[in-house]
């Protein structure tokens, strides 16, 4: 046990031995954002004198548990409400390391997904033990504030001098990364070789971090899975959400300070209502506030904000299937189609339908929404980085799950247990089934991601040649039972979005 006692800048922490590695759970990286610190940027943790036990996960960030359960229930699995506790005192991180020996190993910091409203660093399929054991790495996972507490924007209502920020969740992530930079060497990691990795909202967070001045220099590489720099609200748009929150709570704009005293249960009760009114993720997401995030991430990338950051990114072939199932089934949303494309709506759907072997309009809609929300934003981010001369690698995850009669295909989040090599935890088995053939693919993805974190190149033995992404070949590694390389996959549909962008 003594080899798992580490001196941090704030005090000693005691983890525990787990086989060949040491594990620390629940290390504070910021002061609890309670009372007057609610809705404000994180502050460094207070030092402690004694050895602090860090052997169990902290509470999750406050969230509506039923929202997380709906994802599993949508595919016909038993709906189980998460029994883990929630608390506003949630800003803690976890570490897996081969040894606390100042060995300067590659470090990965993981930012979880969950539409900026659910999820936790303690979710079992984010376990870092396999990376630490198999690939001699240090893995860190961290919590950040979610939903109203993490992303409501109060600055315009309360005034610039109020100290409020609409990007508290992102600033929490930066605080965690800063803690890693200051402390990780004592845990066996190299603070100069940090990769930040995330999926879904975690990847969208990283896209924002790539454009945030406060995040510069805190990581060397970035891995974005199924998330990039999409449509983000401005401060003016986010202020409308804040005004609606105050109205629901019976407060007027002069009473912003009173939000610090509103019971947590009350905030969680109104959060789904605000999400429904303002379009789900868009109600609680990073805000282009002109300060912490000065401009849209793509605009910041075009100015060279992350020109020294190597990027590995990609999407899943059937991202939108999961969300379609959560909303009642696979069917074309004609109203949304018209709103998105106007007079070109039927032409766009026809092109997507023709591009499918089954010529199914319903599954063409899945492809279209997958592109709108995930694939095209990923390509836009890759293009911006390539134009800055940064090394970029692109992938697409095509492995189709046999679970539940195959309804999921290569749906959103299907790649997570392959990357982490956590195929046998409960949610992973629900998503991927139990076929033994899964493990060979997981071994390859796990090793490829580790190679990128180690030296900035995901190419490994067992994969086809995987060149860097450029604007001519657009080389993309297709992850499937047998990985292959494709040049500009679904290129005709990518070009369609380029045409739409030029017209709009």
Largest sheet: 11 strands, mixed
Q: How much of the polypeptide forms β-strand, as a percent range?
A: 15-25%
Please identify the structural class as seen in this structure.
Answer: alpha/beta
Count of domains: 1
In angstroms, what is the radius of gyration? 22 Å
CATH architecture: 3-Layer(aba) Sandwich
Number of strands: 14
How does this model look, in words?
With 504 residues, the chain is an alpha/beta fold. It has a single domain, classed as Alpha/Beta hydrolase fold, catalytic domain (Rossmann fold), CATH 3.40.50. It has helices spanning 65-73, 129-135, 147-151, 155-158, 168-183, 201-209, 235-248, 264-277, 297-302, 321-326, 334-341, 345-354, 361-387, 416-420, 426-432, 438-455, 491-503, and strands at residues 5-8, 11-14, 16-18, 21-28, 52-53, 92-97, 105-111, 138-142, 189-199, 221-225, 310-316, 392-397, 475-479, 484-487. An eleven-stranded mixed β-sheet has the order 3-4-6-8-7-9-10-11-12-13-14, with helices on both faces. Helix 12 (345-354) crosses helix 13. The chain is globular, with a radius of gyration of 22 Å. The mean pLDDT is 93.
């Amino acid at each position: 046990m003594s080899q798992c006692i580490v001196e941090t800048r704030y005090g000693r922490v005691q983890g525990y031995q787990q086989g060949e590695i040491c594990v620390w759970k629940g290390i504070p990286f910021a002061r609890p954002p309670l009372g007057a610190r609610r809705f404000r940027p994180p502050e460094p943790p207070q030092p402690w004198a004694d050895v602090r036990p860090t052997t169990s996960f902290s509470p999750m960030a406050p969230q509506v548990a039923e929202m997380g359960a709906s994802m599993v229930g949508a595919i016909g699995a038993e709906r189980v409400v998460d029994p883990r506790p929630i608390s506003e005192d949630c800003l803690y991180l976890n570490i897996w390391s081969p040894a606390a020996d100042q060995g300067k190993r590659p470090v990965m910091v993981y930012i979880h997904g969950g539409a900026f409203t659910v999820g936790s660093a303690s979710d079992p399929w984010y376990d870092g033990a396999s990376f630490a054991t198999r690939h001699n790495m240090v893995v860190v996972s961290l919590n950040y504030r979610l939903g109203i507490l993490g992303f409501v924007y109060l600055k315009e209502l309360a005034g610039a001098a109020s100290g409020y920020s609409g990007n508290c969740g992102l600033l929490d992530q930066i605080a965690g990364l800063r803690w890693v930079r200051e402390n990780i060497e004592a845990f066996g990691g190299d603070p100069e070789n940090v990769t930040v990795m995330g999926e879904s909202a975690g990847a969208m967070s990283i896209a924002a971090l790539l454009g945030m001045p406060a995040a510069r220099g805190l990581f060397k590489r970035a891995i974005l899975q199924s998330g990039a720099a999409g449509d983000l609200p401005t401060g003016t748009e986010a202020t409308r959400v804040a005004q609606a929150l105050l109205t629901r709570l019976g407060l007027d704009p002069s009473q912003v300070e009173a939000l610090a005293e509103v019971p947590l249960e009350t905030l969680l009760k109104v959060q789904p209502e605000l999400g429904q009114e303002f379009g789900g993720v868009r109600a609680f997401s990073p805000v282009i506030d002109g300060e912490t995030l000065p401009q849209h991430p793509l605009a910041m990338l075009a100015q060279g904000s992350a020109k020294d950051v190597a990027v590995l990114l990609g999407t899943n072939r059937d991202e939108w299937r999961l969300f379609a199932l959560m909303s009642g089934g696979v069917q074309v949303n004609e109203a949304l189609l018209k709103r998105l494309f106007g007079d070109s709506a039927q032409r766009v759907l026809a092109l997507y339908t023709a591009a499918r072997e089954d010529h199914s309009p319903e599954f063409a809609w899945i492809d279209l929404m997958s592109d709108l929300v995930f694939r095209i934003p990923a390509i836009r981010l890759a293009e911006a980085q390539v134009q800055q001369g940064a090394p970029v690698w692109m992938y697409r995850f095509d492995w189709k799950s046999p679970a539940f009669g195959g309804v999921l295909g290569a749906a959103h989040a299907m790649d997570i247990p392959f990357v982490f090599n956590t195929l046998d935890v409960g949610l992973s088995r629900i998503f991927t089934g139990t076929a033994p053939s899964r493990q060979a693919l997981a071994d390859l993805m796990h090793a490829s991601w580790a190679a990128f974190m180690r030296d900035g190149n995901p190419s490994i033995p067992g994969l086809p040649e995987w060149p860097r992404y450029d604007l001519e070949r657009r080389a993309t590694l297709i992850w499937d039972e047998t990985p292959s390389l494709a040049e500009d996959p679904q290129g005709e549909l990518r070009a369609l979005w380029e045409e739409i962008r030029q017209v709009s």
